[in-house]
Amino acid sequence: MDLLLFLQILTLVFGFYMAWNIGANDVANAMGTSVGSKALTLRKAVVLAAILEFSGAFFVGSTVSETIQKGIVNPEIFEYNPLVFVTGMLGALLATGLWLQLASYFGLPVSTTHAIVGAVIGFGAVIGGVHAVHWMEVLSISFSWVLSPLLSGFLSYLLFSLLQRKIFFSLRPVDEARKIVPFLAFFCFTIFLLSILYEGLSNLHLHLNFPRALFFSCCFGILAFFVYSVLLRKLALKQTPENTPKISPQHMISLEKAAKHLRRVQLNSEGELHDSANDALKQVHELREKIKKEASFEQNYHPYHQVEKIFVYLQVISASLVAFAHGANDVANAIGPVAAIVEVLRTQIVTQNTAIPSWLLAFGGVGIVVGLATWGWRVIETIGKKITELTPTRGFCAEFGAAATILLASKMGMPISTTHSLVGAVLGVGLARGLRAINLRTLRDIALSWIVTIPICAVLSIILFFIINFFVKS
To answer: Is the same domain home to 14 and 83?
Structure first.
């Protein structure tokens, strides 16, 4: 078989394998919160994500990809030997795919961007030496490990804390939800659409600057506000049905405050006052435990079922927009290197930017969809169930916090990880309910997988580069 034809076939195979693993790991992030909160079944989530991911990848996917990911390796080292670039990128594709598959098997959400960066660092350092790697760019990418989960977690924490105070701790939670949700719909549509419209429609030859993108996004947001306001007025939601427990979380908050004050009196008193405070504190604790047994507020208190029902549709919409944006933005992680290799094999010249044909966008979109449908459930289970217990309100807060972080980072030109942002957002929602609501063992495993992603992919890439290079030369 002709060498060029063999390398082209190998490129498509490795590219599809990479796209498959992006679907199995990265795409699961977008739908994990919706499945975990039971807003969507796993089957519906897969179908919805498949349609939206493919649409985002094919219709508004990036048409230009940096062949040396984010400029982390000096392209001049490949100037006189394009074939080395081809074998190196093949090794990087396969190394990234293998690491993503291993992470998906254990249900660990890892960053595809960091994986491909690590792989490119590996073969780039071997070919051009350590000095050929732009380490400041690598440091900037590594900084996003800390920044993106912290920022998204902080935003999600604030939003869910606000919903707790304004809705869940109020005496009439359904009425409060009716007032607040239209405003959330406005911000949801505005921010998500802004992330897509602002410099995200180049494949459709539509270039909107920030003011125009913001204007159109706000128009859709205002429309969503009025639609939700009308729908919630017509939606028949009972406020106090029969046989509903006459207990609300406000009572629990009051008991917590009483316990805190009594503990302060107990610690700062002696004698009879100390004993009385101690007895009263025991009674408060007993009463609190009794109430917990009689009613699990967010599960058994009927108005909260109605509140969660209101948020289901909002969460499905937010998850859909996240999936669409992910397909548009991240398809280049799989298809960019493939397009670069195909171009080098055709021209024998390594260029900094490579145009991605439409058929390759469709190719990558199909690979992503297949990966999500076959193996995506593993990471979906981790995001949706193993970090913290999710409901539609919590899931919406997580998706909103992650999307806002991604948009803000993109506007500032900072490298960001969709995976890290979503995991941080889910963590932030969990922390709003207290540290006990977090599965620290799962969190530890995810953090370790993030730390080792770049070095493992670099080592795998080096090994595979030598193996592929050996067979190509022979």
So the answer is: yes
Q: Are residues 334 and 425 in the same domain?
A: yes
| pLDDT tens digits, one per residue of 436-452 | 788 888 889 998 999 99
Q: Are residues 193 and 253 in the same domain?
A: no
Query: pLDDT for 264-280, tens place per residue?
Result: 887 778 888 888 888 88
Helix (H) or strand (E) holding 138: helix 135-163
Q: Residue 298: pLDDT band by 50, 70, 90 thresholds?
A: very low
Last residue of a domain, one of 231, 260, 294: 294
**Which of 440, 315, 333, 299 is closest to 113 using CA atoms?**
333
Per the CB < 8 A criterion, the answer to whether 194 and 212 are in contact is: no
Whether 153 contacts 402, CB under 8 Å: no
Assess contact for 111 and 417: CB atoms under 8 A.
Answer: yes
Dump pLDDT digits (tens) for 307-350: 888 898 888 888 887 787 677 666 667 787 888 888 888 888 87
Residue 245: predicted pLDDT = 47
Task: Tell me the residue range of the domain where 107 lies.
Answer: 3-240+299-473
- Helix residue ranges, H only, 209-357: 210-234, 249-267, 271-294, 297-300, 302-347
Helices then strands (H, E): number in the chain?
15, 2
pLDDT tens profile 81-98:
888 889 999 999 999 999
Phi-psi sector, 109: left (phi>0), alpha (psi -120 to 50), beta: beta
Q: CA geometry: angle at 383 spanning 378 and 384, to 5°?
A: 95
Residues 318 and 406 both lie in one domain: yes
Same structural domain for residues 162 and 42? yes
Tell me how far apart the alpha carbons of residues 268 and 209 are, in angstroms, rounded to a whole number.
62
Whether 12 and 42 share a structural domain: yes
DSSP-based three-state secondary structure for 340: helix
Nearest to 406 by CA among 312, 316, 311, 328: 328
The total number of structural domains in the chain stands at: 2
258, 389: one domain: no
- pTM for the full predicted model: 0.79
> What is the distance of C-alpha 402 from the center of its chain?
6
What's the rounded Cα separation, in Å, for the pair 437 and 234?
35
Which of 276, 294, 312 marks a domain boundary? 294
Percent of the chain with pLDDT over 90: 20
Residues 280 and 409 in one domain: no
pLDDT in tens, 206-244: 677 878 888 999 999 999 999 999 888 876 554 444 444
Report the C-alpha gap between 320 and 264 in whole angstroms: 49
